[in-house]
Amino acid sequence: MTVEAASATWKFDFLDTVNADPQCTPACLKVIKAYLHFASEASPVAFMAKSELVARTDLGEATIKRTRKLLARLGYLQPVGKTAEGAIQYRLRNARKQEIDEHIILVRERLAEDRREEKKLFRTRSALRGDQNEPPKNATGGSKGTPRSDQNEPQIPRLIPRGILSEGRDILTANSEFTGSTHESQEREQNGLSETACYAAMSRGDGSDEPIPVPGDQDEAQAMMEAICEDREVPDIVRRRLLSMLQAGVLTPRMASNILAPVEDAA
User: Fold this and answer.
1) What is d(CA 136, CA 203) in angstroms, rounded to the nearest whole number?
2) Is 50 exceeded by the pLDDT of residue 194?
3) Which of 2, 60, 138, 175 has the fewest CB atoms in 10 Å of its CB?
């Protein structure tokens, strides 16, 4: 390694130490960098007038004075005399390199341990939430409640709309998950219940805040949308949002009325 390369490495190590030192301020790095410009590993003594330091660091004289005292106390700057013009000469010493290297290792290990603890806590909380969501078990080990024929069928999550007119992934998810659900539609038809009539009854009675039953297929959904919009000129974006909320099982007659009110005012 050449002398110039060795001196450059010495300067970089010096700056890395000061930069990682928790007792140093950002001004310390600026002042040390200014002095290192005039020093080398072979000749680590440098001096500068305050005006030169102000120009090179963009710091005020009071800040420079405090910073040099701090660097001297930490051992980075060691006063060795004054020039004929009165500038203080300093010997630059990377006095805390070993201590700061150990500090970096300790901080790195502590952060890694904190991450491990966070993951452990997350797994514990996830396990607790999973236990709370399980149904209670009876004395024979089975879950309480009457058995259902569709226990092995996949459960379809309820989707909560993000906003009245927002378009997002939840719309696509709602459309794809609820398109083929014909089982509930067949049950409602056997009971002689029409979704369109159900919406009309709910909008007139006390059930205006109850969610409208989810349509069984696209034809039924379109019929319900016609009943909800009541032949009004509803923009496509509003109609799509109403449809997604209807298929998600969260649309109530009152919500539909509030969404369509601005449309009626515009008309």
Assistant:
1) 38
2) no
3) 2
